[in-house]
Amino acid sequence: MAITWIRRAAFGVVAAAALALGGCASYVTTQVTAFQNWTASDAQRTYAFQRSTAQQNSLEQATYEQLVDNELSVYGFKLTPIASANFLVSMNYDSQDHTVVVQQPDFYDPWGPWGMPYYRPWGPWWVGPPPPPTYSTQTYSVSNQRLAIRMIDKATGKEVYRVTASAQVDDPSLLHAMPFLVRGALADFPLANGTVRNVRVPVDQNGTAGLPSNERSVNVAPPVPASAPAVN
User: pLDDT digit string (tens) for 9-58?
Assistant: First the structure.
């Protein structure tokens, strides 16, 4: 099971990532924005999850927390009871569906088998200059999946890190997109303040998220900790 992303409409009218089950390896592109005032040492990287009222006793929330914990552990974070945690980590996520309408030209071959122009949209060959191309409307259903992760210094109550990852996909399931959003959001932690970039997360042969790579970076992030995953 693999997930195929990226479907681009003709003439650059629209560029949307496509999430579908298939048999070939591809990648997921997430758009990532980060803000930070991170000064904590490695020894201070203990945290607990902070849930909203709606997230209390939620199996969905617990599933996503496990994904975040797996990524944060790569950077030396340890999940602890809230009493001993230095940071509080909260998550906010949503999925919004919308329709994209694109005008695409109808294809025709402007040359006949003897090198003479013809146009045959309905019947026999017509010798002579082809008329202007016609256009047809293509409609695509797209889901915008978004994840925001926020870190609060428990001692001061101040926000020290906020990162948002989003992707436009065909699959409306947030569950399918979440592993890629989490990995894209937390790649190269901590990012420089005001970073805006695209992160490509490969889909491995099992259909799960591989190690990410940067597609574009506005700001240069600090060096990646030694324990962090390699960037392709």
Answer: 322 322 333 343 333 448 889 999 999 999 999 889 999 999 999 999 99
Residues whose CB falls within 8 Å of the CB of residue 68, separated by 6 or more in sequence, listed in order:
49, 89, 91, 149, 182, 186
Q: Taking a C-beta distance cutoff of 8 angstroms, is the pair 223, 192 a contact?
A: no
pLDDT at residue 140 greater than cutoff 80: no
Neighbours of 119 (CB within 10 A): 17
How far apart, in whole angstroms, are the C-alpha atoms of residue 147 and residue 145? 7
Answer whether 176's CB lies under 8 Å from 19's CB. yes
159 within some domain: yes
| Three-class secondary structure assignment of 137-206 | EEEEEEEEEEEEEEEEECCCCCEEEEEEEEEEECCCCHHHHHHHHHHHHHCCCCCCCCEEEEEEEEECCC
Q: With 50 as the cut, is the pLDDT of residue 198 above it?
A: yes
Find the distance separating the first CA and the last CA of the chain, reported in whole Å: 22
Distance of alpha carbon 157 from the chain centroid = 29
Domain that includes residue 80, residue range:
2-100+140-217
Domain tally, the chain? 1
Of 168, 199, 151, which Cα lies nearest the Cα of 47?
151
* This prediction's pTM: 0.68
Residue closest to 178 by CA, chosen among 94, 82, 74, 76: 94
User: What CATH number does residue 161 fall under?
Assistant: 3.30.160
List the structure tokens of 195.
């970073």
Six token digits for residue 103: 């005008």
